[in-house]
Structures are given as C-alpha cells and as structure tokens.
Amino acid sequence: MSELKSGSNLEKVLNAGHFAFTGECGPPKGANVTHLKEKLNHLKGKVDAVNMTDNQTAVVRMSSLAGSVLMIEEGLEPNFQMVCRDRNRLAMMSDILGAYALGIRNMLCLSGDHQTFGNHPDAKNVHDIDSMQLISMVKKMRDEGKFLNDEDIDVPPKMFIGAACNPFADPYEYRVYRLANKIEAGADFIQTQCIFNMDKFRDFMKKVVDMGLHEKCYILAGVTPMKNAGMANFMSKFVPGMDIPDSLVKRLKSVDKKDQSEEGIKFALEQVEEFKEMEGVAGVHMMAIEWEHMVPEIAERAGVLPRPVV
Amino acid sequence: MIVADRKSLKEILAMVEDDKKILIAGCKGCVTVCNTGGLKEVEILASSMKIARKKQGNDIDIDINVLERQCDTEYVAGIKDTVEDYDSVISLACGVGPQFLSEMYKDQTFYPGVNTTFFGGATEHGVWEERCAGCGTCGIHNFGGLCPIARCAKSLMNGPCGGSSNGVCEVNKDIECIWDSIVRKKMDAGKIEDLMGVKGIKNWKTARDGGPRKSIREELVQGNI
Amino acid sequence: MRLSYPADVKIIQVPCTGRVDILHLLNAIEDGADGVYVAGCLEGECHYLAGNLKARKKVEYVKRTLTEIGIEPERVEMYNLSSAQGARFAEIANEMVEKIKGLGPTPVKSNTAA
Which of A79, A148, B90, B122 has a CA between 20 and 30 Å from the CA of residue C47? Predict the structure, then answer.
C-alpha cells in the first residue's frame, strides 16, 4: 500500500485494491436540507463516496461546498465538485481551503457546462483557469503547500484529486491523450461521463491500458441507469457529449413501458459486471439521476455490497 | 477590425424621440468595412428614421457626416463648428466613437447607434466572425494559429471540453469547436506532442481584468520634446 | 400588342436591378410614394449573373425596415419577369396598384406645414 495523499475513504478503498462504487447527488434548488438528507440517506452504506454537484447544467442550486458539509453530517463521504465557470482562482483556492477545513477530502475538478444551458443564461462566465489547470492547482496546494503565487499555505489541503473524462466527445482519437494530460496535471482518480456505447468504451480502455494510464490513476466508469426510452431519447438529443446507441433505445422500447425501468437497470447491471472484469477499470461511478432511492437495490443486485471498511 | 451591429430602429428612435434636429455621425474606419456605420449605412438610417417620424406626424431634421475616424481627436475636432447645432448626435462608430465625441464636446449628447461586438474579419461577403479577444498576451502560435481564448466558449487553454461533438461547440450548432480544429490540425501534422502537458495558467493582468489599458510609443509622444 | 397599365406607376429604368439600392427604395417611401416595386429579370436569367437576386435581398431588407416602423411591408415588392413578357408586365402593374389601393395612401406624410 502506497502512502495516502488525502486519507479519504475513497482513496483508501481504491488503494486497498477494492472495486470502488461511488454515487452522486444534486443539492436542492433551495435550502431544503430535509430533502437533501432524505436523498443522501438512500446512499448511506451503499457507496464509498458521493459526488456533490456544483450548479450542474448551470442551474443554480445550493453550493456544492455546503451540500458536501451537510453530507458529512449525515455520515457520508463527499466528493466535492468544483467547476471553473463560476469562480476565479481566488474563490477556488479559498473554497478548497474551506472545504478541507470542514472535513472534505475528495474533489472533482470540472470545466462546467456552459451557462447558456442553465437557468441564468445571461450570466458572465469566469473560466479564469480551466479544469486541467484546476487539477494542477489543487495538486500544488496539496503537495507543495503553496498557493498559485507560490506563497506558503498554513496547513495545506490534502485532497484526493478527481477529474472527469468523456471518451464519447470529439475528437475521439485525442481523448486518451487528454486523459493522459489530466493525469500528468495531478488527477488521482477519474470518473467518466455516463457510458452507454460499450463498444466504444472497450476500445477507449484498450488505448488507456496500452498507454499504461490505468497504472497512474484510478478510473471509475460512469453508469446511469435509464428510467425509460424517453429518457434515453432526451439525453441523446439534449445533453452535450452523450453517445447513446440506437440498440439501447431499441432494447428499452422492446419491453412494455412499465418494464422499461427494469430493463434500464438490467443494462446498467450488465455494464457493472463487465467493468468489474475490464482491465484498467477500478470502479463504477453510479449516477442515478433523481433516482437515489434505487441505488441500494442497484448496489445489492450489482453485488457490490457490503462496501469495504478500510 | 472592430465589428459592430446596428441597433434596432426602435431603440435608436426611442433615444431621440424628443429631438427635432439631429446629426448622424458615421466613421470611415472599421464600421465602414463591416458595413455598419459608413456613408451608406448612415444614409439608410437617416432615411429610415425620417420615414418613421413622418409616419408619427413628427418630422425630424437629420444631417449626416461621416468622419475620417472617430477614434482620433483631430478628426473628431472636425465637427466643432456645427456640433452644438443639434439636439443630439447618433454615432455609428464603434464604442470608441461616442466616447471620443463625448469627451471633446461636453455639452452635447451622443448616442451609440451600434452595438460593438468583437475583433474579427469577414469569412465571406456579409459574414464576420470573432478572432481575437484582445487579452494582451498573444499565444496563438501555441495553438496551431487558432485562438482558444477568443474562440472557445469557455476560453479553455487545455481543451476540448466534454461537450465537443462533430467539430461543433456544445453552446450551439453554429459555433465551431475551435479545440476540435486545433487538435485535428496538430494530429494531421503529426505534432500531437505539442498538445501534451498542461498549458500554464494565464496572466489576465494584460487583459481588461488589469484595468483599462494604454499603449505608449515613446518615440511618437510629442509632449516632452 | 398594345397593353395598358395604370398611370399610377412611374417607371424608373436601370440597366440591371442589381443597380437598385436600398436607399432608392427608402427614399421613394420617405418622399411619399404609396408603394414601390422592382421588376427584375427571371431568376437564373440575370445578364450580370446575380443582379436580380441581390435586388430581392435589398427589397427584403426594406420590408424588414418598414415592418419595424409599423408600415405595411407589402408596399415594397420584388417581381421577376422577362423582357418578352409584356402582358405579364401590365398584369404586375395592375396587381401592385390594386394591392396599394387596398392598403390605402402611405402613412408617411410630411407635417412640416403644421
């Protein structure tokens, strides 16, 4: 076992060689703590860490930092998401310090969906630094104990650094190199975009393994169970960077409407089974969008319970 | 050049709704080249406004004058004898024009008749596209000669983001993903290594973020001769 | 072929409708014309390749401007016909005059006397 960088539960699980299983939760559109805690309770004991999204799809929600802290209060481990759209380097560094001070040990560094997708499309975006630079900044803060300006940090934030990877965006041939850059920048773990096109992902992982990237970084495969064929159609059309093969849509449509969610879950479970065996995949990131209450059943049927205690 | 789009007639008419005699000042610089504020456009605006005001039964007297450039005080000074004859002045120059005018003629009101949009060029007759963000630290050679600061919706220095699809930006189908073009150009040239590693964090002090900027050519400044 | 067309129409000849300018159309309306139309060659038959197509775009520009001001855009039109279609020329003139009569006199009247 190598020396731990953050000591987070997620890091320990991965470091011990377990197949990781992470979840995701969007903060409320408001200050409804009760609702957030209800959603989180479904995930308790079923996942190693839970991503707390940061104004996802550029829709204003409770801050991911506050949501992460509320998660800690509930006894779960957050993976604090941070996008480059809404904060400049000053705000980012101060939030990273604040997050660490409040017990947050994992963070996911993202560019962020463009604000025109969200509910405040007239907003000015920031993008002072990009996601690649954010990763390297968090690494510098952690490993060198320095701010961007090279001033010393009094108690550096020891974060387990995450990054995203979308093998289904273009240009496809470059995506593995971009992943390599994120790892070089300092990513300790990667959570991929939702995977539906398994053929393409198999090919992508082969390239990852050929370049030895899986040995430098833990790669968690993104899985989203489809609730029905309509959701598949919607995501295919309106969510940027989604690759949903017709075969999956057909498969969902081939069963009665009332059975489509079960078919969606079955597909997700088949994916998890394959990822368990796939070289280079260290775990699964389960993004059950507004379906948190299904995660216990999915985790159970996926055979990933009980979660390891390390 | 600086590219601008004319404001709507409705907006311009509302600006001068109480005025009876106005000047429309064009500019022979960039806005002439992008067909927004040259002689032709000044005449079209004047005629359109007269039609509108006649329809309201409230005629307006409009003079026109196309200055050599509205971004040089010597040309702005060219209207000093007549500028106070008008109730107000509409400038069809970029955002620099109405400011130079306002600074020189403090008692007159100058309205912007255009929305200044970007630094760019014509990609075909009648179509202009943004190319430069004026960030003050040019590094386009690092990106295959294509600027991601101006042309990526997120100004990514290490792109493309996960929303790039078929060469198109996630923001809308009419926007080229410039990172797709940068990557393809490098890959076609067999220079993928140029895109390996992390491009360093940008110094925005030279951009607008450092406050309003000034360029001084000492050899040309005559104040201290 | 002695075809008649309404005396309301004043013809201004140009070498090609490509010569017609937005300003010509606007100035006509500004000076009180009830309507103005451009009669160009058939599309694809322009001796200068695209003069009539450019004219159509200019007519459309003026229509947009009139719409913005609240004047019926139908007061400005583009027609295409060949020089051999004398009967069609008279028909268009009648059609346009009828349309303008339907719309009534121009709302663009100078009030300088008032």
Answer: B122
Contact (CB, 8 A) for B122 and B128: yes
A287 is written with which tokens? Answer: 């993004």
Interface of B with C (CB under 8 A): 8-10, 40, 43-44, 47-48, 50-52, 54-55, 57-59
List the pLDDT tens digit at each of the 225 positions of chain B: 999 999 999 999 999 999 999 999 999 999 999 999 999 999 999 999 999 999 999 999 999 999 999 999 999 999 999 999 999 999 999 999 999 999 999 999 999 999 999 999 999 999 999 999 999 999 999 999 999 999 999 999 999 999 999 999 999 999 999 999 999 999 999 999 999 999 999 999 999 999 999 999 998 998 766
Residue in chain B closest to A177 (alpha carbons) equals B196
pLDDT one-digit tens code per residue, A146-202: 999 999 999 999 999 999 999 999 999 999 999 999 999 999 999 999 999 999 999
Report how far residue B51's alpha carbon sits from residue C30's, in angstroms, rounded to the nearest whole number: 5
Does C69 sit within 8 Å of B57, measured CB to CB? Answer: no
Determine whether B224 is exposed, middle or buried from the number of CB atoms within 10 Å of its CB (0-12, 13-18, 19+). Answer: exposed
Structure tokens at A97: 């310090």
The full DSSP string for B122-191 is EEETTEEEEEE---SS--GGGGTT--HHHHSTT--SS---TT-BTTB-SS-TTSB-HHHHHHHHHHHTT-
Tell me if B154 and A127 make a contact (CB, 8 A cut-off): yes
CA C13 to chain centre: 12
Give the type of residue at A157. P
CATH 3.40.50.2300 segments of chain B: 2-118
Provide the phi-psi class of B84: left if phi over 0, else alpha when psi is between -120 and 50, else beta: alpha
Instruction: Note the CATH number of domain B2-118.
Output: 3.40.50.2300
Quote the pLDDT of residue C2: 78
> For chain C, what are the domain ranges?
17-102
Task: Identify from A93, A129, A190 which residue to disrupt to test chain B contact, counting B C-beta atoms within 10 A and taking the largest count.
Answer: A129
Secondary structure letter of residue B217 according to DSSP: -
**Complex prediction ipTM:** 0.94
Is B192 at the interface with chain A, CB within 8 A?
A: yes
CATH architecture of the domain with residue range A13-302: Alpha-Beta Barrel (3.20)
Give the Cα separation of A300 and A294 in Å (integer). Answer: 10
- Per-residue pLDDT of C33-87, as tens digits, reads 999 999 999 999 999 999 999 999 999 999 999 999 999 999 999 999 998 999 9
What is the sign of the dihedral through the CA atoms of B21, B25, B26 and B28? positive
